[in-house]
């Protein structure tokens, strides 16, 4: 029913609200999903072998779709980056919170080492 709801993240950081219009599913990193309204469907998506082994997120990430409000949380501040068609960005996977499910991404080893 009606009322006021207050949300809190257990670690120092931000909460961001994504208003989903149903046109695009989103992928969320481990620990980034906080809450959603009833019109948002929450499930899992299996990453490919390379993404699962090297992303630090494991083989499954959260996938959300539908219409409604999605609440994301993260340790530290959340900043929105909008990429233009063809634009690329290199991001440490530990700092990625959420991205459109249709966005193509690759996982690379950051430095050469013993492995």
Automatic annotation (TrEMBL):
InterPro entries: AIM24 (IPR002838), AIM24_sf (IPR036983), Trp_RNA-bd_attenuator-like_dom (IPR016031). Transmembrane segments: none annotated. It comes from the Eukaryota. Pfam families: AIM24. This is Altered inheritance of mitochondria protein 24, mitochondrial.
